[in-house]
């Protein structure tokens, strides 16, 4: 969800899913900003057929790398010293 003047929200069944939704939303926004930087006259909408074909190609729930990204991201946070794990304190924050 994009909130005017307030940022974006993403919700998933897991933190991993919410992160993935936010990551790809950010990528899509950056692509749109970059495309529009060249002028609206240079931007073309893709056909519905091409959109459907692209969506089908990305829907591969059994792909081998489907769950390798999250452990890699957690290792990156560990290397950077980011505290993300919650403790038993219900008032503690995840980040």
Global shape: extended
Question: What is the mean pLDDT?
Answer: 81
Helical content (DSSP H or I, runs of 4+):
40-55%
Give the SSE string: EEHHH
Widest beta sheet: strand line-up = 1-2
Please tell me how large the radius of gyration is.
18 Å
Strand content: under 5%
Q: Whole-Å distance between the termini?
A: 21 Å
Output the structural class: mainly alpha
Q: What's the count of strands?
A: 2
Number of helices: 3
Parts with pLDDT < 50 across at least 5 consecutive residues: 89-95
Layout of helices and strands:
Blueprint: E1 2-3, E2 7-8, H1 15-37, H2 48-58, H3 69-80
Antiparallel strand pairs: 1-2
Describe the protein's architecture and organization.
This protein is mainly alpha-helical and 95 residues long. The protein has a domain at 1-43 and 67-82. It is 48% helix and 4% strand. The protein has three helices and two strands; from the N terminus they run E-E-H-H-H. A two-stranded antiparallel sheet has the order 1-2. Strand 1 (2-3) and strand 2 (7-8) form a beta hairpin. The longest helix is centred in the first third of the chain and has 23 residues, at 15-37. Mean pLDDT is 81; it is low at 89-95.
């Amino acid at each position: 969800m994009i909130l005017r003047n307030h940022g974006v929200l993403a919700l998933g069944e897991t933190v991993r899913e919410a992160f993935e939704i936010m990551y790809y939303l950010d990528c899509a926004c950056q692509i749109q900003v970059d495309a529009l930087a060249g002028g609206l006259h240079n931007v073309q909408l893709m056909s519905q057929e091409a959109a459907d074909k692209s969506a089908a190609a990305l829907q591969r729930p059994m792909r081998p790398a489907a769950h390798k990204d999250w452990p890699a991201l957690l290792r990156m946070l560990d290397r950077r010293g980011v505290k993300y794990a919650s403790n038993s304190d219900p008032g503690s924050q995840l980040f």
